[in-house]
Amino acid sequence: MGGYQMLDGVPPPRVIPPKVRNRPAPQALSAALESLRAAPRAKFDETVELCFNLSIDPRRGDQM
């Protein structure tokens, strides 16, 4: 049974595979802003997170 042995009638733990998330494709900033403006408004304070990969090496002083 997959390397597990049953101890005193207790079955081994089942491994549940993680769910695969479908990540949205990267968008241009202008297209993302247009889709935000077109979305319906909510009754709470909405926030938006932006992530930038700057490829900066902090050990190099000329890149800071």
Describe this entry's structure for a reader.
The protein is an all-alpha fold and 64 residues long. Helix content is 16%, strand content 0%. It contains one helix and no strands. It has one helix at residues 29-38.
**How would you sum up the global shape?**
flat
Secondary-structure-derived class: mainly alpha
Q: What kind of sheet is the major sheet?
A: none
Average pLDDT, all residues: 82
Number of helices: 1
**What pattern of helices and strands is seen along the backbone?**
H
Helix content: 10-25%
Provide a short characterization of the protein structure:
It is built from one helix and no strands. It has one helix at 29-38. The model has no long low-confidence stretch (mean pLDDT 82).
Offer a few descriptive terms.
single chain; 64 residues; mainly alpha; 16% helix
Task: List the topology elements.
Elements: H1 29-38
